[in-house]
């Protein structure tokens, strides 16, 4: 499905530069809400991806001469639980609260009768999953650098009372193709949590789901479990349950994940200990983001 549907000319440095601009085709009706700009300030350059619930475009912001990302979400795809009490989508509400080097920066949003248009910074590098596919696995040292940054992002959002609920390699973006600066992205399933509160509802990807999610009462420790599983994945290139049929995954997740000698072949003792403490079945025994950042695996990082 092509995303380039029309063109528009932008004057820059005295030259006419052709830019792709399908914004009028993305919109479903005149926008009603704008916080800093108007929708016509954006010109779409290309389509970055199409998922089940949203489309993401690379867009040019004319007033700032910057390139950003626009996520387009159909309102009919959102459930009641994905709105705040003020009828604002949780994703927009949460993004507006974030200001951290390890989470995607939010600029503004628009809405019309059928869709939301969320404007965030554009990360020019791959996501962590695609990076592995293209450039190969990370050694332990590189993995520890990346996981430490992810944990710093998780510590930040957990301190704000936010649970991401979908931590996985696809939702960790590299800011640039030339460094290891990362951003936690896609807060579509995230929500706020109060001290002592337990959440309900199954959000996230099956290979990274914490066991307590399936049991129906959980807190921010689900992000720690997911991060622990992700650590294993980016070092080995394997999902921990890859030999299990999809129908049996839920049953397997509820049992302790055994990091035996075969699965942890080549792992340092520090790395094994780190993963085991991240994926303990009992969330009370699982490390917090703060504790995890103090683990000896990060010594020298």
TrEMBL record:
It holds the Pfam family Pkinase. Residues 42-298 form the Protein kinase domain. It comes from the Eukaryota. CDD domains: STKc_CAMK (cd05117). ATP binds at residue 75. Keywords: ATP-binding, Kinase, Nucleotide-binding, Serine/threonine-protein kinase, Transferase. InterPro entries: Kinase-like_dom_sf (IPR011009), Prot_kinase_dom (IPR000719), Protein_kinase_ATP_BS (IPR017441), Ser/Thr_kinase_AS (IPR008271). GO terms for molecular function: ATP binding; protein serine/threonine kinase activity. Monomer. Belongs to the protein kinase superfamily. This is Protein kinase domain-containing protein. It comes from Stentor coeruleus. The lineage of its organism: Eukaryota, Sar, Alveolata, Ciliophora, Postciliodesmatophora.
């Amino acid at each position: 499905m092509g995303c380039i549907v029309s063109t528009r000319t932008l004057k820059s440095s005295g030259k006419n530069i052709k830019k792709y601009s399908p914004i009028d085709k993305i919109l479903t009706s005149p926008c009603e809400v704008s916080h800093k700009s108007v929708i016509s300030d954006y010109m779409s350059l290309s389509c970055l991806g199409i998922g089940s619930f949203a489309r993401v475009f690379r867009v040019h912001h004319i007033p700032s001469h910057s390139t950003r990302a626009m996520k387009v979400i159909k309102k009919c795809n959102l459930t009641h639980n994905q709105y705040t009490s003020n009828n604002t989508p949780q994703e927009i509400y949460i993004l507006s609260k974030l200001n951290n080097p390890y989470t995607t920066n939010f600029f503004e949003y628009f809405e019309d009768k059928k869709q939301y248009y969320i404007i965030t910074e554009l990360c020019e590098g791959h996501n962590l999953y695609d990076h592995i596919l293209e450039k190969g696995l990370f050694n332990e040292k590189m993995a520890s650098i990346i996981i430490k940054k992810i944990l710093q992002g998780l510590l930040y959002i957990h301190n704000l009372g936010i649970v991401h609920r979908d931590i996985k390699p696809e939702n960790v973006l590299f800011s640039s193709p030339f460094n290891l600066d990362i951003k936690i992205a896609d807060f579509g399933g995230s929500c706020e949590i109060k001290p002592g509160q337990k959440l309900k509802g199954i959000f996230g990807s099956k290979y990274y789901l914490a066991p307590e999610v399936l049991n129906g009462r959980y807190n921010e420790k689900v992000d720690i479990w997911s991060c622990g599983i992700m650590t294993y994945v980016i070092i080995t290139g394997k999902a921990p349950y890859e030999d299990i049929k999809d129908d049996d995954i839920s049953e397997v997740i509820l049992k302790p994940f055994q990091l035996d000698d075969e699965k942890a072949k080549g792992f340092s003792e520090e790395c094994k200990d780190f993963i085991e403490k991240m994926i303990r079945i009992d969330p009370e025994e699982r490390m917090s983001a703060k504790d995890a950042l103090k683990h000896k695996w990060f010594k020298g990082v």
